[in-house]
Amino acid sequence: MKKSVFFGTVALVALVAGAASASTLDDVKARGQLICGVNPGLTGFGAPDANGNYQGFDVAACKAVAAAVLGDPMKVQYKALTGETRFTALASGEVDMLARNSTWTFGRDTELALDFVAVNYYDGQGFMVNKSLGVSSAKELDGATVCVQTGTTTEMNLADYFKSNNMTYTPVNIADDAEGQQKFLAGACDSYTTDASGLAASRATMPNAADIVILPEIISKEPLALAVRHGDNNWGDIVRWSFYALVAAEEYGITKANLEEVAASTQNPEIRRLLGLEGDMGKKIGLDNDFAKRAIMASGNYGEIFEANIGASTSIGLARGLNAQWTQGGLMYAPPFR
Amino acid sequence: MALASDPPKDGFRLSMLIYDTRFRSITIQIVVLLLFLAGLVWLLHNAYVNLEAKGKDFDFHFLWTRAGYDLAQTLIPYSNDDTHFRALIEGLLNTLLVSVLGCILATVLGTVIGVLRLSHNWLVARIMTVYVETFRNIPLLLWILLMGTILAETRPVPKDFRVTEAMKAAGEEPKASMWLFDSIAVTNRGTNVPAPVFDNSLGVVDIGWNLPVSLNALAVIAVMAASFWGWRRFMARAKAVQETTGRRPVTWWPSLLILFAPIIALLYALGFHLDYPKITKFDFTGGFQMLHSFTALLIALTLYTAAFIAEIVRAGIQAISKGQSEAAYALGLRPGRTMSLVILPQALRVIVPPLISQFLNLTKNSSLAIAVSYMDLRGTLGGITLNQTGRELECMLLMMLIYLTISLTISSLMNIYNKSIKLKER
Questions:
Q1: Are A171 and B71 a contacting pair at CB < 8 A?
Q2: So where does this one cross the membrane (chain B) (predicted)?
Q3: Which of B153, B280, B384 is the closest to A151 by Cβ?
Q4: Is residue B297 within 8 Å of B98, Cβ to Cβ?
C-alpha cells in the first residue's frame, strides 16, 4: 500500500510536469490565450472589479504581454494564486507567467527554478496598526500578535526583524490578503505586515481607513518582479521586453493617446526601433515588429498604468518614489532597444 | 497437487498458457505484473526526466537547513534558528495533539448522542437527530471556518479588558471582564487560564535534542502514582481484614489522607501557586494561552466526527437483540446499568471496526487546519517549508508517508483493542 501511494504521487507529478515541456510561446499561440497568475484580491494590483474582470497594476503587465504575443490584451485567462501556491503553479506549467507581487530573491531564482525577468515595482515590507494601539514605531511591537501571509518572504523578514531587535511576537499565518485584512479588522492581530504597497492597497479598502496607520519602518527590500519558468529563455525575453517597452515608452513620452501620432512623426531612431518602424526587434524574439506598440496600446505606458491603478489620484494613493523613471530619481530604467 | 500426478500426454504447447486452466491464472498474473512494472518504470523515468529538465534534484538535505520562520503554537521548544526538520516535528506534534484530543472528545460526545438518539423521550431523540443530520451533511471546512469566525468575532479584543486610571476615576467598568474570580480571560485570540508556578522549582533537565523535561511535573506525577498505589494496597488490606474478621475498618479518612496529604505536602514544599493572566500592552501575558486556532479546529473536528460516531454507536446498540435488554430487565437491572453492563459491551464488537475509520478520518481531516491558521504538519512541512525550499516532490512524499504511518499506527492499535473485546470463541 505504501508503494502504491508513492507511485501515485510520482505519476501525478510526472504528468503535471510533462505538460510543461513544450515551448511556452508555441503553447500560448496554440491556445490563443495567455494564462497569467495573479493575486486573488489585492486592490490596485490584481483584483476582480464589480463585473468580475481582473484589474490592476500587475494585471496590466499580463495584458501587455498578451497584446504583444496574441495581438489582443483581452486574451488572458487569470488564475488567482495564493502566496503558497503561486510558484508551484508556475513551475508545473499551470500558468505561463506570474504577475503577482512576487519578491525576487536568490533562493527563488535558483532553488525554485524560476526566472525573474523584470522588476515592475520596488517595494519594502511595512507594518500596519490601529491608531488606538498608540504605537508609532515597529520597534514598539514587542509582544504583539502579527498577521503574516504564509509562504512569503515577509514571513521570513518578520522573523529576522524581531530577532535582530530582540523582540518576540505571535505569528498568525494566513493564506491571502483578504483573510489578513479580515483578521486585522476583527482585532485578531495587533499588526498586519506585508509589502508597503499592499498595506496601502489594503487600507484603501478598509471602512475605518483613517484609524489605521502604516508604521514608518520599512524592514526589507522587496523587488516585486514578473516571473517565468526557468529554462525557456525565449519566453523570458518576450515577457521582459514587453514590460520594458512600457517603461521605455514612458521615458520617451509615448502614451496610449499619442502613440499613433508619435509613430507617424518621430525621427528618433530609438523610438523608431521600439515601435517597430526600423530594424526587426520583434522577429528576434519570435514575434512581429509591432509587439511593443501593441503592448503600449494595451493599457498605456508604465507611468499611465501606475497612475491609473495605484497612483496618487486613486484611493490607494501611492507616490512614485523608487518606481519613478531613472531620469526622475527613481529606479525604473529600461535597457536600450538596440 | 493431485493434478500433478496426472501429466498431460502431449508435450507443452504455447496455447496451453491461455487455454489450460492449470497455467491460465499464472499467465494472467505475470502479464499484469509486467504491465504494472512497465507503467512504473515509465512513471519513474518521466519524473526523472522532468526533474532533470527543470534542473531539480531529489534529496532531503533541505530538512537540515535553518527554517527561518516562527510558529505560534509549539509543544517542544522551537525558534526560527532550528531546522526544517524541527519545524516538521512541531507540525507533527500539533497534528497529533489535535487528533488525539479530537478522537477522545468525539468518542465521548458521539456515544452520548448515539445513546440519546435512541431515548424514549421524543424531544431529546429528535434534537439528537437534528444534530446528527446537521453536522454530518455540511462540509467540515465550513464548520472549521464557522468556529474560527465565531471565536474571533464574538469575543472581545484584549484591550477591552483593560482598566485604565481614567476609567477607575470615572467609575467605569471595562467593556469585557474575566471569568471565575478574574482567572480566565477568553479574548478573540485565545483562552487565557492560570498556569502553575513553583517557587522552589526543581528545574528542568534536557534529555537531548533540546527536549526539556520539568522535574516538578515528574515529581508531581510520581507522588500521585505512589499515593494511588498506596491507596490501592490500603483498600485491599481493608478488604482482607473484612473477610477474615467480618468487620470493615474505617477507610474514609485514611483514604483521603493517603490520596491527598503527600501531594499537598509536595506542592507546599515546591512553593506552588498559580500565575494569573494579566492584560499588558497588546495581549494577556502570564498564565497559559490556548490559541483559538487550536480551539476552533478541535471543536469543529469533534462536533463533526461525533455526528458520525453517534450513528455508529446507534447502529451498534440496535444490532443487539432486544432479548438481551429484556433479560436484563427481568433480572432487575435498571435501564442505565442495562446499557452499561449488558448492551454496550456487546455493542462494542459492532462499533469498534467502523470507529477506526472515523478516527482515521478525523486525523486526516485535521490537515484542513490552515483554514484557521493552525500550524499542523501540512502547515509547516507541506506549507511554509515546501514553499520556502521549493522541494514539492520531497515534501509531498514525506508528508504522505507520515500521514500513512500515523493512520496505520492508529489502525493497528485499534485492531489490537478490537481483538481484546471480540467475542471469545472456544
A1: yes
A2: 23-44, 96-118, 130-152, 209-231, 252-274, 294-317, 396-417
A3: B384
A4: yes
Q: Which of A4, A7, A13, A179 to mutate to test the interface with B (most CBs of B within 10 A)?
A: A13
The reply to whether A337 falls in a domain is: no
Q: Which residues of A touch B291 (CB under 8 A)?
A: 170
> Domain check: are A20 and A114 in the same one?
yes
pLDDT at B280: 83
Q: Are residues A287 and A265 in the same domain?
A: yes
Q: What is the pLDDT of residues B140-163, one digit of tens each?
A: 999 999 999 999 888 888 888 888
- A64-117 pLDDT, tens digit each: 999 999 999 999 999 999 888 898 899 888 999 999 999 999 888 887 888 999
ipTM: 0.77
Inter-chain residue contact B54 with A91, CB threshold 8 Å: yes
pLDDT at A325: 94
pLDDT in tens, B270-317: 888 888 888 888 888 888 889 999 999 999 999 999 999 999 999 999
What's the length of chain B? 426
Q: Is the pLDDT of residue A223 over 90?
A: yes
Same domain? For A324 and A295 the reply is yes
B164 interaction partners in chain A (CB closer than 8 Å): none
The string of DSSP codes covering A243-293 is HHHHHHHHHTT--TTTHHHHHHH---HHHHHHTTSSS-HHHHTTS-TTHHH
A147: in domain = yes
Higher-scoring residue by pLDDT: B166, B403: B403
Q: Which CATH number characterizes residue A137's domain?
A: 3.40.190.10
Structural domain containing residue A33: 2-123+223-328
Whether A13 maps to a domain, the answer reads yes
Q: Which residues of B touch A1 (CB under 8 A)?
A: 404
- Asked if B390 and A111 come within 8 Å (Cβ–Cβ), the reply is yes
CB B93 within 8 A of CB B76: yes
Where would I find the beta strands (DSSP E) of chain A?
Answer: 34-38, 47-48, 54-55, 76-80, 97-103, 114-123, 125-130, 144-149, 169-174, 191-195, 212-214, 222-229
A336 domain residue, yes or no: no
Of A145, A155, A189, the CB nearest to B69: A155
Q: Which residues of A touch B396 (CB under 8 A)?
A: 9, 13
Q: In terms of domains, do A156 and A193 share one?
A: yes
Decide if A171 and B70 are in contact by the 8 Å CB cutoff. yes
